[in-house]
Amino acid sequence: MSEEKSESVEKRPTFRFLFLFLLTVTILFSVVIFVTQKNQSPYSSGFNLSDLSEDEILVINQLPEIAISDIKVQHAHKAPAPLEAVFGNHTIADFGANDAGLKQGEFFNFTTRWAGLPDIKVLLSYLEYIGKLPKKVIYVGLPHPHTGAFSHLSLSMEHLPPRLYFFDNHIRKTNNIRRLMRLFGRQIRDHLDWRNIVNVMTNACRPNYGVVSLSDASRSDTSSQNNGNIFFAFISGFGEKTAVDGCPDLHGIDRDGRDLRWTRKSNKTLMRMAEPIQPKVFPGSVDLVVSLMVEIHKFTSSGRKVIFFVPPLYETARKSQSFDIMSKIVAATRQQGLIVIDDRRGEFNGSYFLNTSHPNGKYFADLVSKLTSLK
């Protein structure tokens, strides 16, 4: 009898230790995930960008690309479907409502940094599912063949929120499920990465996320800037202003969805790019790109057009293998009845560009004027 009691006494501390150990680990992991989630996805509850005024932006400094694209997806949930919208990569980030001749809320820029055609198709499928497809015009910007984004044309860059890829019917369901598990697993891994925790705690340039006016976006006056870093907030007093000497200006997304990281005008005199283009590996094939464009074109309806366009670069008339590939793509899709505006060789002077690879609003207004008769 006494032996049984002694065994039970010995087991109790062991169980108690295991329970406390598991509880501590669970709490620790929960805190880590909460902190990184809060700092990597500060707008996870959603934000209606239409609520911003003309001179306000939603701060996105240091956010991962998935979090930035999720801001636009969450906006789509909260705002009415626009009349027109543009999809593509960062080279067309400056396309806004004024350029399309539309009012606030009638146009939205859904571009992401490295969007490939598979990503654009997934995003359109999701917008269709939630009933927020553009009502009249879907603009799809194709990357210029002399930009790095051209090699992503036929690839899924997976910079959209993982849940959206459930709507990708271009691949088999079993492969799609495996991809979803991988993407969600990557998010969990990033939240548990100790380097992200260190960055959150020690990065002096981390901003306070939220809405800021463009006039307050400059961080040259270090004494007037709030800092969103936990460690620096602690040592300086929470709620106090913290110096952030040498930090880049705040940038963000405006009410049209334009990502202002890419829309800053160059301070230097623009010079046309003239260096020879080095041969690059183009993944996939012309037929694959054509098939993806045909799939996207299926979002056309009786009241909605899908218009593809290739924006210009500020360059000399350079030749390359990738340029020839794009020419074949344009020719093949036009033969199938798709609308493709090819401005690769357009006569555009420096007034049409923010910098050598990003056209400005003047170009997009010119593009829209060409398409007026097609609407």
Verbal overview:
This protein is α/β, with parallel strands linked by helices. 37% of the residues lie in helices and 10% in strands. It is built from 9 helices and 10 strands. The protein has a 5-stranded parallel β-sheet, with helices on one face. β9 and β10 form a beta hairpin. The radius of gyration is 25 Å and the shape is globular.
Mean pLDDT: 84
Q: Strand tally, please?
A: 10
Measured between the Cα atoms of the first and last residue, the distance is: 91 Å
What structural class is derived from the secondary structure elements? Answer: alpha/beta
Radius of gyration: 25 Å
Strand arrangement in the largest pleated sheet: 3-2-4-7-8
The proportion of residues forming helix, as a percent range, comes to 25-40%
Number of helices: 9
Overall 3D shape: globular
Low-pLDDT sequence parts:
221-226, 232-243
Biggest sheet overview = 5 strands, parallel
Short recap of the structure:
The protein has 9 helices and 10 strands.
List the SSEs and their pairings.
Blueprint: H1 2-40, E1 56-59, H2 65-78, E2 84-87, E3 107-109, H3 117-129, E4 137-141, H4 173-192, H5 194-202, E5 211-213, H6 230-236, E6 252-253, H7 286-297, E7 305-310, H8 321-335, E8 339-342, E9 353-355, E10 358-359, H9 361-371
Parallel strand pairs: 2-3, 2-4, 4-7, 7-8
Antiparallel strand pairs: 1-5, 1-6, 9-10
